[in-house]
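Quick one, T. Sequence first:
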Amino acid sequence: MELSQLADGLVRIDRHDGTFLGIATHIPTNRFAVTKLTGMKRSHGIIVFEGELHTWHIHGFTQHEEQLYLYGDYIEGHTLSEVLQYSADGFLPYLSRLTRALSTLKTSEQPTPVLHARSIVFLENGGVLFLPPELVSAISGFQSPEDRREFYEVYHHPDLDAERNLSYAVAVLAFQSLTGQVPFEDTEEEQLTERMRSGLVANPRYIVPEILEDVGETLRSCLADPEGKLPTLDGWTDIFQSWIQHGTHREITEEERGRLFEEAQAQQRGMERTYRRREHIRRNWRRYVGITLLAVFVGTIPATILYRSFEPRETAGYASAEVVEAFYYGMNELDHEIMADATVDGAGSTEIREVTTMFVVSRMRTAVEMRSSLIDARDWHAEGKPPIEEGRQVYGVADLRLEALRAPAEGERAFRVTYDKWYPTGMDRDSGGEGILVGFERVDRVYMRQSRGDWVIYQIDRLEDRTMERRRTDGTLIEEPAASSEP
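Structure tokens:
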């Protein structure tokens, strides 16, 4: 037997009894897997070509150099997983071909195929080969968790029926082609399905800013509400033909790219907080039912007081280091609520008051100027501290670094936190009326314990606090002696 590579996951097999197409199963060649697969009732694949169905005869399985191959009638093509690596313009015609083939299968009352990116083959003659669904399910069950998640699970919504799920899988494929990543991802299968259920998905424009707004919104709405917004397979075909004809991208300015980047960062952080809160409630719903029943039973205690005493923090479910990051980066987002949820016993009260004030001032200026006047210090650092547009200021934390320390007591945590803090001052008399930015190099020691099952900061000690530099908004440095406090 001789094997020669045809494409990714596809080989030509030459044997004494003929030439065959081999499809890699990507599963270990252990005896149990081979016995299980070869013992299954023999069924055949289906080729959809120009609206007609043809049988692809499966002849069996064969092993070669520790690889297990499914093989059948010889024909050449490329797997779905391979063509997914093409550019969006290159992939859209394949995606349109896929939806047409799926529509043909549906009207022909064939078994609903199982979408696995390595089990669908786009043939050189224009056809599409689908392996039998029961065989695809069996093969995926033997694959590694990583392969199963990447090529199978990301395309299957846990609450949709098989037919509806095909439309959902098409939306995921389109999102993946345009952005280079899947809309929902997690290392655990249970968490992946919960992220799908959450519907918290970024507009593809926030990942690739050149994507047209209506294209991005179509995909976002479909994935956020698959029960109500998913098109039919024929509907997808029409959408893809329109995208092929009119394009999916446009040129943008660097200013617009920067604005979309800022919006994307804020949206991603907000979606992650929302998801964590929902997960906390999902996992602790019995606890909240108990709170409600207790409120009814006690009667004289207002239910709102009882509920708020057990209401999940925004940092619910965060690891200790993530709580610290949420507190410090909460300054950048002017999110005094998450900072308050990350602390107890008055820890960080100075910073929380400062952020609350900055939040009010920023909202007032936004109402007048129709945009935020503050720039996230973390983003500004990442861009190399460029000159700042007139009327805007930098605020927040950058270059945050955490070092775990010995905790003062069992069950607690401690961190040494090093960071730069940028703060806008008033006007400098020597700067011609320009605002001044002051940067501080700080080192804090943070102490943590658990409260109601969540990590919280109960004490912050400032170890170092020196003025790093002062800058005019045009980027000019102003020499200044070291100081120990903010203006």
